[in-house]
């Protein structure tokens, strides 16, 4: 088995870099750290990174309003409520909300699409993720 240290970045496929960069910076409030001809390197406030990468293939990870394939960002309880109103003011439709009290990730979640229909989740986690391992 490999002995990994940490997650460095993940990639989100997009069709238009300008449109996606604007969404992830102006709507989600993330920071652009670098850009080249086919990628925009992004950073979250807690110093996690991801890359918006131009995809030559169509981007359609989920059928209709399914949300199994998604990217989740943590928000505070207060920010969760404010964020829902902000998204509505920007015509970003929340298509599903959950309030999970069991399972791995517990808390309130809202799901919405980015401009390429990638699903984004915001969640106000009640507690750290729960493992199914016995202590």
Structural summary, described in words:
By secondary structure, this protein is an alpha/beta fold. It has 2 domains: about 10-55, Signal recognition particle alu RNA binding heterodimer, srp9/1, CATH 3.30.720; about 70-130, 2,3-Dihydroxybiphenyl 1,2-Dioxygenase, domain 1. It is built from 2 helices and 8 strands. The mean pLDDT is about 95.
Assigned CATH class of the largest domain: Alpha Beta
Q: What is the element string, with H for helices and E for strands?
A: EHEEEEHEEE
Helicity level: 10-25%
CATH architecture of the largest domain: Roll
Q: Judging from the principal axes of the Cα atoms, what is the shape?
A: globular
What is the beta-strand fraction? 35-45%
Task: Sketch the major β-sheet.
Answer: 4 strands, mixed
Give the low-confidence spans: none
Q: How many E strands?
A: 8
Counting structural domains, the number is: 2
Q: What's the average pLDDT?
A: 93
CA distance, first residue to last residue: 22 Å
Rg, nearest Å: 16 Å
Counting helices, strands and paired strands, the structural category is: alpha/beta
CATH topology (fold) name of the largest domain: 2,3-Dihydroxybiphenyl 1,2-Dioxygenase, domain 1
């Amino acid at each position: 088995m490999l002995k990994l240290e940490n997650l460095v970045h993940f990639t989100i496929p997009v069709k238009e870099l300008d449109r996606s960069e604007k969404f992830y910076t102006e709507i989600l409030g993330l920071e652009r750290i670098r850009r080249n001809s086919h990628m925009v390197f992004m950073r979250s406030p807690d110093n996690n990174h991801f890359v918006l990468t131009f995809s030559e293939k169509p981007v359609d990870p989920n059928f209709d309003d399914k949300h199994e394939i998604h990217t989740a960002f943590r928000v505070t309880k207060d920010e969760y409520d404010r964020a829902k109103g902000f998204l509505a003011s920007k015509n970003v439709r929340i298509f599903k909300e959950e309030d999970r009290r069991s399972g791995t990730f517990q808390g309130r979640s809202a799901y919405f699409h980015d401009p390429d229909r990638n699903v984004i989740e915001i969640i106000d986690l009640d507690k750290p993720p729960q493992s199914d391992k016995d202590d």
